[in-house]
Amino acid sequence: MTATQKPVRGVQAHELDRKGRRFVLATCCMSLFIVGLDVSGLNLALPSIARDLHAPFSDLQWTIDAYAVVIAGLLMLSGSVADRVGRRRIFRIGLVVFGLGSGLCAVAPTSELLIAARVVQAVGGSMLNPVAMSIITNTFHDAKERAQAIGVWGGTVGLSLALGPLIGGVLVETVGWRAIFLVNVPVVLLALALTVRYVPESRADRPRAFDPIGQALVMVMLVALVFGIIEGRDLGWGDWRVLGAFFVSVLSLSALIWFERRSAEPLLSPVFFTSIPFTGAILSAVLGFAAMGGFLFLNTLYLQDVRGFTALHAGLMTLPMAGFAAVMAPVSGRLVGTIGPRIPMVLAGVGITASSLLLVHLTPGMNLWLLGTAYAAFGFGFGMLNAPITNAAVSGMPRSQAGVAAAIASTSRQVGSALGVAVLGAIAFGRLSGPVSSGFSEATHAAWVVMAGCGVALVVMAAVVTSGVARRSAERVGDLVA
Question: Which 8-state DSSP code applies to residue 54?
């Protein structure tokens, strides 16, 4: 038992045999799989949701972003609460809330209620992934066994991404879009049963203090920013509500920086951001996941509303992207371990940029082989991205702070995803004139240019975060926070 892991009443990690530890890993991976499946499969359901619920484009964006914004705002809070009151307890609550939110999504009669149910889902989701990683770390004490468990955990991300479009397409085509949410419920029930039987309870001996003011400022900043971007097209960019939202977002960010610099135990320690690798990892996560969020959102609408593909056919079309992402993720991890993060991050930027340059020429009748090549290039790039981001985020950090650094990096991924859907969607819809079936392809061209910019920026970041100056800045921060 490590110094920071305190077993409490219930199943304890040292009581589990190898079979029991495997059940713990399976349970934690289930939580990650249903969350990943929900995200990747839901995009394929957007056209069906729009037709059934008469949802405007802005509501489709909110259906994705309500989840991403809330989970980004609550990830670190959920982790600190779990450290204080018990990881298994919070994990169980997360499963129940996520299952409840899924059920509410499945029966939502309007797009507004669907968005509200997605918020409930996100509250539960914030209690699953970061807490599950802590449970795995607490359960697997042998270094080799723990590394293998974390590898399986990471591979589950690629699996959910690869299977999400296919499973989502099948469900939408055969049962309807509501099945995407209903399928979560039996998985949640099984995970709950396994949690009660096998998952050990643990707490941190010295949990981080709560930072409600910092938490509230982060949430207000994200919601206001995304509201301004999404609603700007319909309300008008000069509308007082849109301008007010941007002002509130900037004001919240300024207040967050001011407050966190004076807090004894801040939610986001400003010292972290003086590390060039850490700050570069945060920016890279935002850039890469913004590209991913916008890519999935726009291509789903293109394949179904422009090309007229069924949800299943659209899911099959995205398999090159998902497949390459799943295959390249472990390859990237091995490259980072042997030659460092620079080359994998460069390859990530090159792949995303190449995909964007192909999609800049998107037409309603674009050759499917060329379209598939663009999807494969994006999957290659995105698959290379996660390992170097995580490596850069924890580079130079002492072990006691590595978890916090990784949590901030995870939050930035969700922020990037929300911004990608909001920004790239706003660009495409803002340029749309006439029906979607004829004008959407051309309207997306400017969005793909922005995505190419994200790819180029990743290449630049690769050089910045791996420089000698960057390494020295990380070492200084490590000394300060040790």
Answer: T
Q: What is the pLDDT of residue 478?
A: 66
Cα dihedral 287/291/293/295 (nearest 10):
180
- The CA distance from 239 to 118, in Å, is 27
* Spatial separation of the C-alpha atoms in residues 14 and 83, rounded to whole Å: 19
More confident position, 165 or 357: 357
Say if CB 33 and CB 155 are below 8 A apart: no
Residue 386 CA neighbour count, 13 Å, CB half? 21
Find tokens 């791996």 and name the residue: 466
Distances in Å between the Cα of 271 and the Cα atoms of 228, 263, 265, 403, 475 are: 30, 12, 12, 15, 12
What's the average model confidence in pLDDT over 40-67?
89
Beta-carbon contacts of residue 262 (< 8 Å; ≥ 6 apart) = none
Q: List beta partners, residue 203.
A: 6
The residues with which 7 forms a beta bridge, in sequence order, are 202
- How far apart, in whole angstroms, are the C-alpha atoms of residue 164 and residue 63? 17
Taking the C-alpha atoms of residue 150 and residue 329, their distance in angstroms, rounded to an integer, is 13
pLDDT per position as a tens digit, 187-208: 999 999 998 888 888 776 666 6
Question: 65 near 422, Cβ under 8 Å?
Answer: yes
Candidates 471, 448, 411, 466; CA nearest to 74 is 411
Q: What is the dihedral of CA 269, 344, 132, 256, to 10 degrees?
A: 20
Q: Helix or strand or coil: residue 69?
A: helix
pLDDT tens-digit readout, 74-119: 887 887 788 788 888 999 999 999 999 999 999 999 999 999 999 9
Mean pLDDT of all residues in 151-159: 69
Contact between residue 67 and residue 234 where contact means Cβ atoms under 8 Å apart: no
Burial (0-12, 13-18, 19+ Cβ within 10 Å), 479: exposed
Cα 17 versus chain centre, distance: 33
- Residues belonging to the chain: 482
Q: Per-residue confidence at 391, pLDDT binned at 50, 70, 90?
A: confident
The average confidence (pLDDT) of the chain is 84
Tokens of 168: 């989502």
pLDDT at 113: 96
**260: its two tokens:** 């966190």
pTM over 0.90: no
* Both structure tokens of 179: 């099945």
CA dihedral sign, ordered 355, 357, 363, 365? negative
The pLDDT, as a whole number, for residue 5 is: 43
pLDDT at 7: 43
> CA-CA distance, 253 to 107, in Å (whole number)?
37
What's the rounded Cα separation, in Å, for the pair 25 and 16?
12
